[in-house]
Amino acid sequence: MTGYGLGIDFGTSGVRAIVVDQAGQVQHNSACPSTTVSADVWRTILFELIAEIPESLRSRLHRIAIDGTSATVLGCNSAGKPLLPALLYNDGRATAELGKLQAIVPANHVVLSPSSSLAKLLWLNREFAAVNSHQGRRKAIAYLMHQADWLAFLLHGQPGISDYHNSLKLGYDPVALAYPDWFRHPDLAAIQPLLPKVTTPGAVIGPVQPGLAEQLGLPIACQVCAGTTDSIAAFLASRAMNPGQGVTSLGSTLVLKLLSRRRVENAQCGIYSHRLGNLWLVGGASNTGGAILRHYFSDRDLVNLSQQIDRNQASSLDYYPLLQPGERFPINDPNLPPRLDPRPSRPVDFLHGLLESLAKIEAQGYRLLQEQGASPLTQVLTAGGGAKNQTWQAIRQRYLQIPVMAAAQTEAAYGTALLALRGLEEGRRNGL
């Protein structure tokens, strides 16, 4: 195998592209801040980031993979064009569809949430059926594509192909590697033609479209691979290989992943498992995280104030930091109110209280994963922007009572680049 691998991460706080060589060494790293829901802007950023790669690397790209936020979806027509803005990962408008699913789907299944991909698909199908009936339009959804699916489609030109990481919240069974039998229910018949074909993350889908390859300066043989989710990409970047190793992604949200010998599923607790070879990534995603810190503090303030905190002294403040009501994990309550009082007069004390509270939530999350049957936690590697905060790391280790350290690579795009170059199975076997 020759050439380089390109991974592109469309995360909650921006987009990053990383090129790696055969040894896993980073050869190029670029980023673009973006939180837009516009698919047109996503397309522009995708092509611009590829075009920014030095020609000497771009002309030798062997494979490309893209990760996106879990359960961010697009309803597309037969040409793959989105019919309305993306429904983001935390969009909870499909409450009526949740009621329908509860009568069909086994209890505690990961799709039993108004923000799941499946609930959103039912909402999209109903919404466009209503529009067609009322206004006589000929618009109709032909494909449900996750963010990563659609961006990869722009490159390879084959709509309706996904991976089993992104498709977990669509209901795809990662054990049987098939859609489960309950999809045959009459109330789900209308969405059957809209379901994507699902393949292994990192599997080759096809080459970049010839005209686009010429436009972007890519080799005609450059292959586009099935992608993954941003949090799994961050896990892959950490190179965690052994059961008991956890990876905490400290991005806009707080995401926990614990490599386990046993699969754990409990929607009531906000817990789900992704397949990773013959092991499982057991985890959950909280609505709290770095976004709450950025809401109150600038990046400079976070650095300066963190250095003033006594990391060995516990804060007396007890918060549940949320930007708006609603939590997914470790408390699964769509109406959970933020708790941010009392507010001390000194900013350093307020930040101390926030960091301590986030650490408590992380520890509570890992306890819950183990109580539900995941492998015992032995080490936590940290990814995301928060991994750079040494004060926060020390506070977290005090609560977790196990070694906590920054991963050697903390960018999700790095994990996706490895996924592209090596594939999921080969990458795990070779420690990449």
Describe the structure.
The protein is α/β, with parallel strands linked by helices and 432 residues long. It is 32% helix and 20% strand. Strands 1, 2, 3, 4, 9, 10 and 11 form a 7-stranded mixed sheet that branches. A 6-stranded mixed sheet has the order 14-15-13-12-16-17. A two-stranded antiparallel sheet has the order 5-6. A hairpin with a 5-residue loop joins strand 2 and strand 3 (26-32). The longest helix has 25 residues, at 347-371.
Distinctive features:
alpha/beta, about 20% strand, about 425 residues, 13 helices, 6-stranded mixed sheet
List the helices and strands and how they pair.
Blueprint: E1 4-10, E2 15-20, E3 26-32, H1 39-52, H2 55-58, E4 61-68, E5 73-76, H3 95-102, H4 117-135, E6 143-146, H5 147-156, E7 161-163, E8 197-199, E9 204-207, H6 210-216, E10 223-225, E11 228-229, H7 230-238, E12 245-250, E13 254-260, E14 272-276, E15 279-286, H8 290-296, H9 299-306, H10 347-371, E16 379-383, H11 390-400, E17 404-406, H12 412-422, H13 424-429
Parallel strand pairs: 1-4, 4-10, 4-11, 7-8, 12-16, 16-17
Antiparallel strand pairs: 1-2, 2-3, 5-6, 9-10, 12-13, 13-15, 14-15
Helix pairs in contact: 3-4, 7-12, 10-11
